[in-house]
Specification:
6 helices; mainly beta; 6-stranded antiparallel β-barrel; Ferric Hydroxamate Uptake Protein, Chain A, domain 1
Amino acid sequence: MLEEVVVTARRREESLQDLPLSVSAITADAMQAQGIYDIMDITDHVPNVNFTNTGRRGVTAIFIRGIGNDSPGHLQPVGAGTYIDGHYLPNTVGNMLNTVDIERIEVLRGPQGTLFGKNTTGGAINIVSAKPGPEFEASALARAASYGQLDVRGMVNIPLSDSVAARFSYANESSDGYYYNRTLESDWGATDVNAFSAALRFTPDDNWTVDLGFRGNYQDDHNAPGQCRARPSQGQVNNFSRTVAVNGEVIHPGQTYNGPVYDDGIGQWGGGHWFGGRGANDVVTINGLPPEEFGINRHPGHTRYRINFGGHVERLYPGAVIDLWNACNTDNAMGDFVTSSEKASMLELDNENVNATIQWDSAGEIGGLDNLNIKVIASNHVTDYNYFQDRDYSSTPMDAIGTPPFPGRGTVRTTTNFEVLFTAVANDRVDFVLGAHLFDDDAETGGGDCLRKTRENFAALSDPDSGFSIACMPDGGTQFDWLSSPRHIPGGPYPAGMSGVIQTESQALFGHATIALSDAWTLDVGARWTDEDRYFNLVELETVPETCSFGLPGDPPRSSFCTPDYVLSFGSIFDGGFYNDTSANFSETTPMISLTRNIDEGMFYLLYSEGFLSGAFNDELNTTLVPQLIPLLTYNPEHVANYEIGYKGTLADGRVRIAGDLFWMDYTDKQEQVNIDNSDGRFGGDPALNIVTNAATVDIIGIEFELRATPWDGGFISLDVGRLEATYGKYESFDPDNPDALIDNSLLSIADYSPEWTINATVEHVFQMGNGGTLTPMLGMYWQDDYDFAGGLDTTTNERSLCFTPAYAKFRARATYAPADGNWTASLYGQNITDERYNEWCGGATGNRSGVYFYRYGRPDTWG
């Protein structure tokens, strides 16, 4: 018989099979049996749930039913919420914690706007930690595997008295990484994670329970490795073969590229280069001939020629783009997991969570209510994030990003949660949940010296005639280390810095009631009111030219960040960057209703639920120079309405458990990046402006099916199937080439990290050995349909990008031995045992950095 799984998906303990909604739960025992040591692994075990490490380690794209977010920024909310012991983690950064001493992980699919609240339009991940118990327990685990993987875990549960128990756990997990960096001559992609938890439970009598807890997760890793792949067109190669001279002096010698070229080559980063003096009639030649012979004419305003030479990267030095292509080609030829990144990229990510829960339970009837439970939850979570990432994955010093290499660097996000819950049984027909919730979120991305001095001196800095400037020291924030060389690159993007403060305060009231209309029919109704205030204050500025360099005396090594000078001025902020300071209020009510038909073997249910995703800001608008942009700073919330029909049943005397559902989600006010008309110049000089706004509607339909069974003595099988199809209903944007028309984008594809079909299957059997022990072999498989990481593709022609990933299957195997009289087990296991190659992540396929795109294969076969 299958064991009952108890969850708290409706904020009270209930059997998983009694819930009229789509929920998956993975218990600690199931995680141990399946070898799930990282929450990221859940994506291979739960239908229509996808966790993806993006181009930066520590930033996880979480998508449930095709709704989520992959932005590392703190401004953009995430449509798939993550909770740990009731505390909401509001960002893609640092939300994938270690599974050490986790009791279970619940995955709630579909909008959870009533009981969990905002930013759960796709669903919610609810992580429940293990609590201290009255009996002494201890456990230890050691794991060794390929690529230097070495993990140790330990837990001890100690009853200190009849009413007090404590529980402690520790884990260290490390690996060398499965990439090789040929520039730094080292294994690459290493991880080193330390996790610690401590919990105390006090139960003075049958009514009171007090839980105190701490969880710490500390990562010190290389940043995410990856590869670049060159994809130049013949036209790009032809451009580089040209020798350009001005008044007889060769400025750009012709370059030769011997690698492959493609009809669908990727465009360059940045425009052409200007040759000749402004206002002068310099003699410019291409291969000794006038540029006009190549169809290139002088600019009528300043008499110079604009000649295409690979955009910004070629400004480093003549031949820089071809060096980039050759580096990518060499990496690819040396192997699937070879990179030539010249940066010693790294990640330092610390998460600390402190929580306190006080419960009082009536343990009987009181005031006409039965089993009244009052729970007060208070918690605080701090994420400290410090990183450095080479975004071109090559030996070319062109594109890095991270927290500046100065004292006090890093981004700190602090969230505080306070909630009061009342649950009770009103009579033999009605039970209910009532609650109030307060949440505070403060993200400091270097909101110190540079931002403070900008605020204090705003009047002088925003006056173009003042000549005022003042130096500042970035403490945190972000540095864009673009095109660093022994001197500033004229015409290219300067290295830049960004500092900001983002704050959110929200409050909510909610209620949910379960009404037994009869023995056969149950009605659930609920609603939540949420009011939210959001504020951001941010400055981005160009650094001082010729101070961010490598190769000169006193410069840092090329493998690290350059260390530019930061000087605030009108030019560095308002000509080369931007400054914004604004706030917004959002208020929403999200209801739900479900009707359940109870039968002997289970239930059928109909469900309607709503959720909303918070509004946010377009932070990179220059509202100081163009005040007309101020109304465009804010965009509004997204909304999702979910219509679902489902079945849950326990059959064959408890040996078979089935859950399945069919759903349609009406996704409106979707936040999309669009062009808007600026032909009249009211928003500055560009004919069109690119912003995020509520531009689209999406229809999402799908199914989820889960089977657990013990069809024979000692046997176990599981099957999970997910299908998802998301299409635009309406999506229009301004056509800059035809200001009187709108572009219909509704037939374009959606980038949602969600393949159309996924299947997970497991089979295992317990063999009784002659010595009384058991041997349990397990074979598992995860299969997913083909998927394209690029969005915006023409679905009518089945257009594919270079990031198209064909369908693939990953197989896993495990064999566990347990002695008859012993308290230990031993396992041998393999992951991706057929060594399948597939894109774990891919980007830049529709135009990026001078003829290359970037990708990272998933982990190769691993044995341990």
